[in-house]
């Protein structure tokens, strides 16, 4: 029998996390990971039993009182984890593979109708694809697998064998989970989709059309800028057109490969389609050329399984009432973590935000949320959100330098990409959506109204071609509403001082910082 707190009655450190109060003992997933020496990313939510009758949080540690202390057994800690911490498929999968199946059989037979024993039983058979020598449950109420107070559930599918409602938001091949947090509940409660529709409803059709066209190009350009690229305007327009079609075609593996061909038009140095070699994100050592990864991509042999799972999960969630923003975060970040292509993954990842929001009806028809533009403004937060997933997994991936200074993964890693906690990614993306709805969209519509006011004034005041009017407004914007000495002497030398004064005064009243 494993003693889950065998090293010491006092917990000082766990997976590099800060010391806890003297007299604390591990509980739930922390105890299972420590007791079975599981090589798995540490969960965001870790639990310990404190010595005092006071429940509190300290970082990612959640300290429970002595009365919450579970039996120091596999059954005790599994039950505690499912009851208080939620479902961590990554931990459960590696745990189940490390123990004998008789241990699970004994748990179920000790409590054949117990809700948590049935959950443990279902999860074992679901994750391991192995049926235990246990008779089907013949009576009792069906129990939800995912506790909606702890995590956001998917649509329920009944398992009559266990009398369990499987409401996991994904499939066995791909199933990120998102913890219920105050921040996410607040965002969901804002009903940002309706807020966006309300904004749009107050906007003239012509104005909306122009705003949509500008935001489309803005998002396309930002997506390239995030990748450190400055392509020709024709490529930006072409990708912008694809973004504008998001949600109109079914999402399939073939569609993802089509999107890559649009992104990467020159295939002389990039093999199109799914990778047949390893992949990583990072740099190379300047002296040796050795890879220096900050993220290691999924193994090429696992890509068919992972992408099929991602697509099936996408279809399942698309047909349910699962929140659109949570779904977009799970699918889009899941894709970029898998990193299935040699190049183009980042732009397709951000396209998937658009696709999910459009197909779920979150975005008003005819409008594209400039999500990439907002991400670009929050680029450091974006990188941290990506690294939050990647960094803990680097130590769990065994690799060596391969041909072309690439990486070759040596161990089994598929579960690192199919089972993960997407809470941090969902919170980041919701922040971007809120900024888009409450700031970016209204500002763009307001900008166009002010631009039109100034444009109409100039054209009614002076007989001037459209291109020159546009240039005049541009110069005013670049110089805080004042026409520069150079502009007065060159492009607009024929304007009188009184005309310039009138235009500058109108600019000030129309609103400054007209953006181009």
Characterize the structure shown.
The protein has 516 residues and is of the alpha+beta class. The chain folds into 3 domains: 99 residues, no CATH class; 257 residues, Fido-like domain (Fic-like fold), CATH 1.10.3290; 49 residues. The protein is 51% helix and 8% strand. The strands form 4 sheets. Strands 1-2-4-3 form a 4-stranded mixed β-sheet. The chain has a 3-stranded mixed β-sheet with strand order 5-7-6, covered by helices on one side. A two-stranded antiparallel sheet has the order 8-9. Strand 8 and strand 9 form a beta hairpin. Helix 8 packs across helix 9, helix 8 crosses helix 17 and helix 17 packs antiparallel against helix 20. The longest helix is centred in the last third of the chain and has 39 residues. The chain starts with 24 loop residues before the first strand and ends in a 6-residue tail after the last helix. The model has no long low-confidence stretch (mean pLDDT 90).
Primary descriptors:
516 residues; alpha+beta; Fic-like fold; 3 domains; four-stranded mixed sheet; three-stranded mixed sheet; 20 helices; 51% helix; 8% strand
Number of domains: 3
How large, in whole angstroms, is the Cα Rg?
Answer: 28 Å
Distance, first to last CA: 68 Å
Overall morphology: elongated
Helix residue percentage? 40-55%
- Rounded average pLDDT: 90
The appropriate CATH architecture of the largest domain is Orthogonal Bundle
Instruction: Please give the CATH class of the largest domain.
Output: Mainly Alpha
What's the arrangement of strands in the largest beta sheet? 1-2-4-3
Structural class: alpha+beta
* Low-pLDDT stretches: none
CATH superfamily of the largest domain: Fido-like domain
Let me know the number of strands.
11
Residue fraction in strands: 5-15%
Largest sheet descriptor: 4 strands, mixed
What's the total helix number? Answer: 20
């Amino acid at each position: 029998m494993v003693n889950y707190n065998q090293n010491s009655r006092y917990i000082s450190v766990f997976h590099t996390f800060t010391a806890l109060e003297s007299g604390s003992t591990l509980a739930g997933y922390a105890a299972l990971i420590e007791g079975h020496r599981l090589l798995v990313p540490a969960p965001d939510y870790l639990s310990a039993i404190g010595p005092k009758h006071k429940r509190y949080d300290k970082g990612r540690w959640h300290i429970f009182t002595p009365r919450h202390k579970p039996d120091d057994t596999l059954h005790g800690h599994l039950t505690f984890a499912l009851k208080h911490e939620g479902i961590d498929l990554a931990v459960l999968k590696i745990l189940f593979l490390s123990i004998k199946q008789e241990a699970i059989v004994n748990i179920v037979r000790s409590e054949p109708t117990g809700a948590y024993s049935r959950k443990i039983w279902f999860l074992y058979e679901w994750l391991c694809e192995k049926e235990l020598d246990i008779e089907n449950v013949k009576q009792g109420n069906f129990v939800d697998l995912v506790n909606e107070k702890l995590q956001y559930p998917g649509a329920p599918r009944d398992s009559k064998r266990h009398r369990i409602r499987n409401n996991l938001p994904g499939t066995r091949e791909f199933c990120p989970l998102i913890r219920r947090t105050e921040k996410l509940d607040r965002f969901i409660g804002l009903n940002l989709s309706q807020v966006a529709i309300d904004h749009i409803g107050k906007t003239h059709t012509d104005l909306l059309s122009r705003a949509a066209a500008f935001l489309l190009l803005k998002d396309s350009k930002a997506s390239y800028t995030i990748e450190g690229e400055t392509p020709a305007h024709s490529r930006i327009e072409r990708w912008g057109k694809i973004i504008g079609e998001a949600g109109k075609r079914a999402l399939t593996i073939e569609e993802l490969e089509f999107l890559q061909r649009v992104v990467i038009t020159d295939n002389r140095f990039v093999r199109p389609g799914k990778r047949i070699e390893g992949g990583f994100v990072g740099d190379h050592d300047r002296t040796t050329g050795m890879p220096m990864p900050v993220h290691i991509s999924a193994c090429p042999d696992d890509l068919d399984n992972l992408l099929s799972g991602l697509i099936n999960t996408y279809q399942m969630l698309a047909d349910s009432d699962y929140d659109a923003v949570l779904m977009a975060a799970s699918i889009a970040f899941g894709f970029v973590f898998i990193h299935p292509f040699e190049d183009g993954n980042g732009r397709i990842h951000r396209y998937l935000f658009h696709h999910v929001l459009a197909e779920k009806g979150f975005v008003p028809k005819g409008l594209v949320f400039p999500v990439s533009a907002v991400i670009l403004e929050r680029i450091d937060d974006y990188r941290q959100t990506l690294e939050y997933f990647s960094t803990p997994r680097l130590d769990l991936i065994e690799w060596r330098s391969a041909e072309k200074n690439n990486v070759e993964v040596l161990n089994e890693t598929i579960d690192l990409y199919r089972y993960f906690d997407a809470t941090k990614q969902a919170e980041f993306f919701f922040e971007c959506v809120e900024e888009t709805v409450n700031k970016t969209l209204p500002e763009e519509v307001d900008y166009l109204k002010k631009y039109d006011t100034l444009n109409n004034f100039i054209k009614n005041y002076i007989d001037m071609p459209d291109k020159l009017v546009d240039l005049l407004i541009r110069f005013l914007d670049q110089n805080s509403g004042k026409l520069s000495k150079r502009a007065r002497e060159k492009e607009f030398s024929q304007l009188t001082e009184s005309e310039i004064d009138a235009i500058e005064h109108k600019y000030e009243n129309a609103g400054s910082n007209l953006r181009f």
